[in-house]
Each structure stands twice: as structure tokens, then as C-alpha cells.
Specification:
Chain lengths: 312, 612
């Protein structure tokens, strides 16, 4: 028994020493939003708490910048490279190059659809399709069989997340004949753009004699939902006619809006990838099997839960 | 012709070298001057320009930040929301959303890099940006208390992180404005305006230079007439990608320490924009009016002047290389021009020293080549002439020897003397006397007192003496007749040219004939020529034999033993008369042979023969 304990202690000591010397590089797609800052902060905090040497780069949502960042980070010779991709395609070559150098790549948040499975140690991604389905179910429960026209507010055009949010939402909506999508607007992940787009849509609908033209709003992101709320606030006398809003996100402002009764619900997307990344690296270093595909789901927040919480 | 002799090649080398080196020198001087006066000054101007632009941009941004703050402070709707007391969390959150919206409207007219936050006494947290508030009660913070106490807008020291929201690492310049009610000055909260200075610096950053901001506190500290960094000074440093905020206790790069030591900033003396050198760096700095920050753009000498120096160095290297190549080319050109002349000169010297066996070749198809060619031809001709002279001398010596042998032909002498002895024994003393006289006459004429030439008359007398002896020897078998033209008798001829022909006529003609034979010597002058004919009525020669003999005469083939006598005569005549003398042989089988010598005398009588 004593011998076994000694062996375990020795292994742990060696593992700890190895981890202390391990260098991890992080290439973030962006650090200009609360969510990406939350993701990066969590990963960095967890890695640093474990004694890893961490270097991070911000690509500013530029694919070419991220490619350059990855090459520069890889040149420093880290053992692991964590990538939150700016785009779902376009990083295949650089990931292959990095993998060929013996650096283990872990994708987080979004995944690159064109990366070969063999080049990546693990994909730790949000379950975007699940989030879209949840939004549809929340609205279905709200309308409870009543007819409803849903206005879909998409965020970042032609992105991986937009595709899966839309797919999940529409797949789920097919089960509810009382609900249909009346229009799709594009908020470009910006609350002011979203606000202007909605105001324009309402104006056009009223001119066409269709009233406001929708019964509910599904926002792909916080900014779309907050832009809708700002549009509501800017129209006097509309308080009684406000259509319920559901969105995917979880920023502080969105939680406040929920707590203020301005939204029906928010499907909060996960930001806590840090512990999962550390666990993956720990397992890989110990020679254990690593789960290659992990889909993270968030939670549904309504006004009741929002009163006691803040967003990321 | 005084002084050291300088060769053409050396002169050409000097001229070419000068032509190469002078432009290179002028070019390098001009380049150095250009780099010194133009690039140097422009680099410094560019450095000053960079910092001035940065200063203007920072000033404008900070001024705008101040304006945003004041606009928000004066906004009635916001003030009302801040003065309210909210009964429920929902009400408060609703008010926050409303004010957020209002803030977004106001800040829309200002720079997008400006973020506005309100931390209100009533618990409201309002912002216009996307980042979420930190999870803490800001009202307990020192900066919050300080702003409320100061009761005026205050720029905080630079901070690495935002004071109120979750943000990435950077350099945040924060303006704190206390908010109070207008009437009773009740505390409403603090308005914070934050600018990410790192973004501004990054936009201004130029490759190879370091931008940084020194944010001094209000107290000065001067040690040894130099400003030391203040206790609370903060330096925001931008270096390539990284933005750092450095404090007094931090280890700073040398150029930052040098800057702090170099810049003396107190209000009275400090120049608003200046350029100075410090510890291997060129600093251009400017004061940002809004908050008295000192913005510094620092470039090392190597970074600032590296490229011009490199360009200049490479150019000088190129010029040096070019000069070497041109010198080499000059040397090659000089060699190319003068080498043929030099070789020709050497050839001329060697020929002058008597070496005519040179192989002078035309190596270039130009004027020098033509000259070489002509010289080679001249040398070749001289060589041929000399060979001919040598050959002629050799032949002459040979014939002189032969002549000497002919003069004292022992066989002839023995036969003649034997004939005389027999005449004496036979008591034919008169005949013996005649024969002895003829022999004496023959040798006397042959010797001719050592002269090689004699008149044709003397030569004919010699032949007559010879024939007298021979007719005594051969008696009735041989007869001799002459037919002489007196006009030709004066012609000077080499001695013993007829005797060998007459001897041939006897031994190859008459002697071979059955019965008596006749040898005839005719001499006449006709058409400017003296024609001498020696004929016999012997068996003659067949056509083949005659052709071979004539061919030997044409080719001067003196090596032929069979016709030695006649060829000897022809050669001597040619040496004496050159091309003015022709000898031909005609022969008819069973009729006889005739040797004809034709000597042109028209010019000959006036000209001096070679051997005379």
C-alpha cells in the first residue's frame, strides 16, 4: 500500500513538473466582445492556475490575421495550441502545418469544418443547433398553439454559428404548425444595426397595412436582441404591443433586459471552456484517451433566473 | 624625350583609371552628401511629424472624451434616471436599459473608441459599450471616493485593465467626472470616460519605432539637474505587438530610462514639441495638452539611420566594386589595345637583331593586324631573299670549286701531256710545240690572272687552244670550225663557259660517232642578242633524252650527275646574266646536237653585271 502511494505520488509529481513546463498558445478569433473576452479569460485563468505558460493572440475576426498569429505562435514551439477560429473554413492548411510540427491543436467554441480530424486533438464546441432548437421550443411554449409569426434576426452573415442556430431553430419549428417565420433580418452582430433594421421593418409593415408584421422575435445573438429592445424603447406608446424576444447569448446587458422584463428568455451559450481544455491537456499528457468531439450546451435563462444573476 | 619613358599601355591605364575613379568618387561624395543632408533631415522630420500627428490625435481624442463626459453629465434624462430611487430590481434594470440606450445615442456622435460608464449611487450601472461590468461594488473603490471628493473632472493614471468592465489587457486612460444634483449637490455617482490608449498608439505606431506615453503626476523631482521619474509616473509602452504599462519599480528598457533622464519637463521650460538624442536613441516628444502627458516616439540610431546607412554602404560597396571592375576593364582595354603593338614591336626588335625565323601571325582584324600582316610579309620576303642569296652563294662557291677543278683537270692534263710525249718520241717536235703552246695558252686563259670573267674573244681563244690539243689527240676523227661575229667579241662572260660545252660535243657527240666528226662554234649578234652555238654532228639524242635534259635546264636541277657540265654552265651564266641569258639544246638523232646560248646585250652593255 505504501509502495503504491509512493508510485502515485511520484507520477503526480512528474506530471506536475511536466505541466509546469508546458507551453500553451491561444489564438482567439476576437477579443472585442464580452463573450470572447469571457471565453479567453476563462481559458487563460484555468491554464495559468495549472501552471502552464500561456501566450495569447487576438485576430480581430480576421482570418488572415489569425493564420499569421497561428504561424507565429507555432514558431515559438508550444506543446498545445488552442484555436477559437474566426471562420469555420480557411484554417485547414495552417492547422495541418502546425499539426505536422507536432503541436497538438484543440479547437474551442466554433470548429473549422475543413480541418481533418487527425490534425486536431479535440473539438470543444458549443452546441449551436441545440441552442436554436431551444429558442423554438421556448416560443412554442409561449404561444401554446396560437398562431404566431416569428421574425428571425440573424447575426454574423454566413457563419458557422448562424447556420446551426438557424438549422436548429427551423428544424424544431417544423413540429409546430401554428408558428412560421415571417421574415429574416440581419443585425450584423451590432445592436444599432439591429435597431435600425427593425424600425425600418416595422415602418414598412405599417405602410403595407400589416401592423407591426410579427408576433415574436428570435435573435441569434445578444446584440440583435438588445437592438430590438432599443427599437422598442425608441417607439413611444408601443409598450403593450411588444412582441416577445428570445435570443442566444448571455451578455450582462441581455441578462439585465431579461431581469427588466424586456425579454422572454435567453439561451446562454457556454463560455467556460477553461476546465475542459485543462482536462483534455491533462489526459493527453498522461497518455489517456481524449474525447475528440465535445459539444457544450448552455442553459435557458428567463426573467426569474435573471433577477439574481449577471451575464458574462 | 627627357624623363622616364612611359609606355602607351601605362598611359592608357592611367587615363582609363582616372576616368573610372573620378566619376565613382564624385558619385560617392554626392551620395554621402545626399544621405547626410537629405535622408538624415527627412528622417528626423518624419520622426517629429509622427509624434506631432500622434499628439494631435491624442489631444483630439482626449478632448472628445472630455466632451462626451460633459454631454452625458448635462443630459437631463440621464440625470433624472440617476436621481430616481428604484423600488425593485426590475425597475432599476429597466432604467439601466433606457439610459444605456441614451448613452449609445450620445456617444454615436463621438469617437467610437470612447466608452462611457456611470456608477450611480442608486445602484445603477450604465454603459454604452459591449463589455460587461465587473462583479464588484465600485462605490467602495478609492478612485470613486477620490472623484467624489475632488468634485472636478480628473484624469486617472493609465491602467492595464478597465476600471469597471471585463476587458482585455491594454492601456486605459480614464477621465472621472463626479455627478451631483444641481440644486443641493447631492451625490449621484461617477461618470467614467475610458479610452483605450493602446489602440491609439497602435494606430500611430510605425515600424521600428517605439511609441510611449509618460503620464507624470503633478509633483516634479529633479536630481542633478535631471528629472527623475516621479513616484506615481506611469509609462505606457508600445513595442511591436505588446502594450505594457510600466510603473516606477518596473525594469524598463534602456530607451525608456534614457528618455526619462533626458526629458526635463517642468511647465516653464519644457518645449511642447522637441527632438533630442539620448543614449543611442533619437527621441521626439510632445506634450498632450489635455492632460499633460508626454508622448514619446523613440527610435534607435540604427533603426532611424540603418536603412540609409545600409543603402549608402551598399552603394559605396557597389561603387568600389564598380571601380575595381572598371580598373580591371581599363587594364584589359589597355592590354587589348597595346598588346598587338607590343608584340609587333618585339617582333621588329627581334628582326632587327637578325632573327628572321619568326612566326608573325595576324591575331586581330584591325589596323594593327594589317600592320602585322604587312610586316610578316616583309619579313617573309627578306627571309626568302636571304635564303636565295645564301643558296646562290653556296652554289657560287660550289661552281668556283668546280671551276677550279676544271682549270686543273688532271685527266685532261695527263692526256695532253701524254700526247705531247708521244709527239716528241716520234720526233714531231713542231707538232709537240704547237700542242704544248696550245696547252699553255689553255691554262693561261683558264687562270686569267685570277679573274672570273673575260671577253668572249678570250673565251673563244681558250676553246680554240683546247680544240687544238684535242684535234692533235683525235687527229682526223675530229675537226673544229668557227664562225665568229667580231661585234660580239667584246662581250664579257664568265670564264670557261664554252669549254665544257665543246668537251661535251667531243665526248658525247664526235667520240660516239663512227668516222670523223665535226664540232662547230658559231657566234653572232642579232636583234640585241649575242647568240653562241656549239654543235656537233654526232649521234644526237632521242626525244626522251632531249626532253629530260631540257627539263633539267628549266628546273636548274644541278644535282643531276649526267648533265653536270651543261647545267654548271647554265647556272654560272644565270648567276652572271640573271634572266638575260637563256640556254637551249636541240638535238636530232643521227644528225647531231646544238647548244645555243642567247645573251641579251642591249641593256647588258649599259648595266654592270653582278660579278664583274
Amino acid at each position: 500500500m505504501k509502495k503504491k502511494c509512493m508510485t502515485v505520488l511520484t507520477v503526480l509529481l512528474l506530471l506536475n513538473t511536466a505541466m509546469a513546463q508546458t507551453r500553451v498558445a491561444i489564438s482567439m478569433n476576437d477579443l472585442s466582445t464580452a463573450r470572447t473576452v469571457a471565453v479567453a479569460s476563462d481559458v487563460m485563468a484555468e491554464l495559468q492556475a495549472e501552471g502552464f505558460e500561456v501566450e495569447i493572440r487576438d485576430a480581430g475576426m480576421s482570418l488572415s490575421q489569425q493564420t499569421e498569429d497561428i504561424r507565429e505562435l507555432a514558431a515559438a514551439g508550444p506543446e498545445y495550441l488552442i484555436i477559437a477560429p474566426a471562420r469555420s473554413i480557411g484554417l485547414r492548411d495552417v492547422i495541418q502545418d502546425v499539426a505536422a510540427q507536432g503541436i497538438k491543436v484543440i479547437m474551442i467554441d466554433r470548429q473549422t469544418t475543413d480541418a481533418r480530424a487527425t490534425d486536431v486533438l479535440a473539438n470543444l464546441c458549443m452546441d449551436a443547433e441545440w441552442a436554436g432548437r431551444q429558442c423554438a421550443q421556448i416560443l412554442a411554449e409561449y404561444f401554446d398553439g396560437r398562431d404566431a409569426k416569428v421574425l428571425e434576426f440573424q447575426g454574423e452573415a454566413a457563419s458557422w454559428s448562424t447556420y446551426y442556430f438557424t438549422k436548429g431553430f427551423r428544424d424544431a419549428l417544423c413540429a409546430y404548425e401554428n408558428m412560421q417565420i415571417c421574415a429574416v433580418l440581419y443585425g450584423e452582430d451590432d445592436r444599432q444595426v439591429s435597431q435600425q433594421e427593425l424600425l425600418k421593418y416595422i415602418e414598412e409593415s405599417e405602410v403595407a397595412g400589416e401592423g407591426r408584421g410579427f408576433d415574436a422575435i428570435f435573435g441569434h445573438g445578444d446584440e440583435e436582441a438588445l437592438g430590438v429592445i432599443n427599437a422598442y424603447l425608441s417607439i413611444r406608446g408601443m409598450e403593450g404591443e411588444r412582441a416577445p424576444i428570445v435570443c442566444i447569448g448571455g451578455e450582462d446587458d441581455t441578462i439585465s433586459a431579461l431581469a427588466a422584463g424586456q425579454m422572454l428568455a435567453c439561451v446562454c451559450m457556454p463560455t467556460e471552456y477553461g476546465s475542459l481544455v485543462v482536462e483534455t491537456i491533462r489526459r493527453d499528457m498522461a497518455g489517456e484517451a481524449v474525447e475528440r468531439e465535445v459539444l457544450l450546451r448552455g442553459e435557458v435563462i428567463t426573467a426569474r433566473e435573471a433577477a439574481d444573476m449577471r451575464g458574462y | 624625350m627627357n624623363g622616364r619613358r612611359v609606355s602607351i599601355q601605362e598611359r592608357l591605364k592611367r587615363y582609363f583609371s582616372l576616368m573610372s575613379v573620378i566619376p565613382a568618387l564624385i558619385l560617392s561624395i554626392a551620395m554621402t552628401a545626399y544621405v547626410t543632408f537629405n535622408v538624415y533631415n527627412r528622417s528626423r522630420e518624419m520622426l517629429s511629424g509622427n509624434v506631432e500627428r500622434a499628439q494631435a490625435e491624442l489631444n483630439q481624442l482626449l478632448e472628445e472624451a472630455y466632451q462626451v463626459g460633459r454631454s452625458v453629465e448635462e443630459d437631463g434624462e440621464i440625470r433624472n434616471a440617476l436621481e430616481e430611487t428604484y423600488a425593485s430590481e426590475q425597475e432599476r434594470r429597466m432604467a439601466e436599459l433606457t439610459v444605456n440606450n441614451e448613452l449609445s445615442y450620445i456617444s454615436r456622435y463621438f469617437d467610437a473608441r470612447i466608452e462611457v460608464y456611470i456608477i450611480a449611487e442608486n445602484g445603477m450601472l450604465v454603459k454604452n459599450g459591449r463589455f460587461s461590468f465587473l462583479d464588484e461594488d465600485f462605490r467602495q473603490n478609492d478612485w470613486y471616493q477620490a472623484v467624489m471628493q475632488d468634485n472636478e473632472a480628473t484624469w486617472f493614471p493609465l491602467s492595464v485593465y478597465s476600471r469597471v468592465v471585463r476587458s482585455v489587457e491594454g492601456s486605459y486612460a480614464t477621465l472621472g467626472i463626479p455627478l451631483r444634483t444641481k440644486g443641493d449637490a447631492r451625490k449621484l455617482g461617477v461618470l467614467l470616460v475610458e479610452v483605450q490608449v493602446a489602440d491609439v498608439l497602435r494606430d500611430m505606431e510605425r515600424s521600428g519605432s517605439h511609441f510611449y506615453i509618460i503620464a507624470p503626476d503633478l509633483e516634479m523631482r529633479i536630481v542633478d539637474e535631471r528629472v527623475e521619474q516621479y513616484e506615481n509616473d506611469v509609462i505606457t509602452l508600445l513595442d511591436d505587438r505588446d502594450i505594457q504599462t510600466l510603473y516606477r519599480e518596473d525594469d524598463k528598457p534602456n530607451y525608456v530610462e534614457n528618455t526619462v533622464g533626458s526629458i526635463t519637463y517642468w511647465r516653464e521650460d519644457f518645449e511642447p514639441v522637441a527632438l533630442r538624442n539620448a543614449g543611442g536613441y533619437v527621441l521626439s516628444y510632445a506634450v498632450v495638452d489635455t492632460n499633460q502627458w508626454i508622448l514619446v516616439n523613440c527610435v534607435s540610431y540604427m533603426e532611424l539611420y540603418g536603412v540609409p546607412i545600409l543603402v549608402c554602404g551598399l552603394s559605396l560597396l557597389g561603387i568600389a566594386l564598380l571601380t575595381v571592375i572598371m580598373l580591371w576593364a581599363s587594364d584589359r582595354t589597355a592590354h587589348a589595345v597595346t598588346n598587338p603593338i607590343k608584340r609587333l614591336n618585339e617582333s621588329v626588335h627581334m628582326v632587327g637583331d637578325g632573327n628572321f625565323d619568326l612566326d608573325i601571325r595576324k591575331t586581330h582584324d584591325d589596323e594593327i593586324g594589317d600592320l602585322s600582316d604587312q610586316f610578316a610579309r616583309m619579313v617573309r620576303k627578306i627571309r626568302e631573299l636571304m635564303a636565295r642569296v645564301i643558296e646562290e652563294q653556296r652554289i657560287q662557291r660550289k661552281y668556283e670549286l668546280l671551276l677550279l677543278q676544271a682549270q686543273i683537270n688532271p685527266h685532261f692534263l695527263y692526256n695532253s701531256l701524254d700526247s705531247i710525249v708521244w709527239l716528241v718520241r716520234m720526233r714531231k717536235n713542231d707538232d709537240a710545240e704547237i700542242m704544248l703552246s696550245a696547252l699553255t695558252q689553255f691554262f693561261k686563259t683558264g687562270l686569267n690572272r685570277g679573274n672570273d670573267t673575260l671577253s668572249l674573244a678570250q673565251e673563244i681563244r681558250n676553246v680554240q687552244s683546247y680544240m687544238t690539243i684535242q684535234t692533235y689527240r683525235y687527229r682526223s676523227k675530229l675537226s673544229f670550225e668557227t664562225d665568229l661575229d667580231e661585234r660580239a667579241m667584246d662581250l664579257e662572260v664568265p670564264k670557261l663557259i664554252l669549254q665544257p660545252l665543246v668537251e661535251n660535243a667531243i665526248y658525247h657527240g664526235v667520240k660516239e660517232k663512227d668516222g670523223p666528226g665535226k664540232v662547230a662554234l658559231r657566234c653572232r649578234e642579232e636583234a640585241g642578242q649575242v647568240v653562241i652555238e656549239i654543235s656537233d654532228d654526232g649521234p644526237g639524242m632521242d626525244a626522251c633524252q632531249l626532253e629530260r635534259l631540257n627539263a633539267q635546264l628549266r628546273d636548274d636541277d644541278v644535282r643531276s650527275r649526267s648533265s653536270y657540265g651543261i647545267l654548271n654552265v647554265q647556272e654560272r651564266l644565270r648567276l652572271f646574266f640573271h634572266e638575260n641569258c637563256v640556254m637551249t639544246i636541240k638535238s636530232t638523232q643521227n644528225v647531231g646536237t646544238c647548244v645555243t646560248i642567247r645573251i641579251r646585250v642591249e641593256g647588258e652593255r649599259n648595266a654592270e653585271p653582278d660579278n664583274r
